[in-house]
Amino acid sequence: MRKKNVVLTNIPVSDYAAEGKALAKVDGKVIFIEGGVMPGDVVDVRLSKSKKDWAEGKAVHIHSYSKDRVEPFCQHFGMCGGCKWQMVPYELQLKYKQQQVVDHLSRIGKMPLPPITPILGSKNTVNYRNKLEFTFSNRAYLTNEEIAAAGDGVIEHKPALGFHVPRLFDKVLNIDTCYLQAEPTNLIKNTLREYALANNLAFYDIRNHEGWLRNVIIRVLTTGEVMVNVVIHHEAKKQREALLDHLLAKVPSITTLLYTINPKKNDSIFDLEPKAYFGKGYAEEKLEDYTFKIGPKSFFQTNTYQGEALYQVTREFAGLTGNEVVYDLYCGTGSIGIFVSKQAKKVIGIELIKEAIDDAKENAERNNVTNATFYAGDVIDICDDAFFAAHGAPDVVITDPPRAGMHEKLVNKLLEIGAPKIVYVSCNPATQARDLALLHEKYTVEKIQPVDMFPHTHHIENVVLLIKR
Ligand code: SAH
After folding, report:
1. Is the CB–ligand 1 distance for residue 330 below 6 Å?
2. How many angstroms is it from 378 CA to the middle of ligand 1?
3. What global pTM score does this model have?
4. Domains (ranges, CATH) in the chain?
């Protein structure tokens, strides 16, 4: 069983595993399985890796289905990397995410835990994203049927507008209807594709770095605003204006239309300058009564409703009375800090990206928040004794690090500073558990609240309240 490319047959899937995979045990060996399978399914697995104690591979055939399985709602399920758990009923997804939090915190965290309150499920399990990006590519990902249809002939590359296929950097799956974001998203995407095909506009070739149409980033917000940013490789004024005019005519609900010229090899727009073609050039989103400016490059929680719920849990855990000095670490565009500002004496936000801090300052002003200040820089560099001395000892530290979790240096600093409360918001319970194990030296975990921001995916958000002993 050490060989690769072996196909194991009739394997009963017994559990879920990390990163959206499933798991089976064969002769004491753990097999991680990809490809839309769930516990209860019996499958054939083609191994791609095989070690002494574990192996991984892809399900190539399903013999029988789990009794819990539901019909996936999307035509692109199985090929698109987007919503891998559509076959799992939402209630079961939540149960599993809850279990993941329990497992991580108890196995890695190794500390006494309070009962974990049931995960907050998402009211909307489709159309829940406020931001979505599609990619233009001159190489569509072809289905097995399409390849078979070509027979012995040469398979011609077709243009596509959709999502990258996992692990195939140059292949894009043409997406007809996507259920991650409310309309007019599909209308925008399909209008662009139809127009580009009808007018022979060149879809980008990521291998040879040529072509014209690169990406489209769409924001559909609860305020009713729709912001679209079309990314092209180079300026071609007449062609660009014709395309953008056509889009505006077909989709009158667009409130802001921008374009960005990206001559670089990579897709990132963070070092580029989006230009407004129509509308004010940004949009606004609301959380409770707070309004946030969303520029074409701004970061914002991608599920507005659940983002609001997450912040409410965070604020409740912070237990503010109006007298507290609150530090908002990894503050992004300042949204958590602003959200709790009314209940705090003052808020100090810290974030690596300068543009995000500019947004945070603007957002504070927009909401008449006068007790919040924001600083750009690495938390490790900024959070020194002089900084805490200058801004006041924290009563509450709110920390919301990226997936990698907090740097050990910061954890040590927090232990040294010893704020009475830490609220730890995490998008990765595994690294959160690691950090909690260190914080356990001085802190007790008081409350744990998982929140589901991303239905049909394996992503989990978890909020933990730590109290200093
Ligand atoms: N709290 C925010 C954003 C959380 S995402 C919100 O709810 O919207 C995590 C943020 O941490 C990102 O904005 C990222 O730019 C920032 N970040 C990552 N590493 C950092 C570091 N070393 N120092 C400061 N900020 C960092």
Report:
1. yes
2. 9
3. 0.93
4. 7-69 (2.40.50.140), 95-124+303-468 (3.40.50.150), 131-287 (2.40.50.1070)
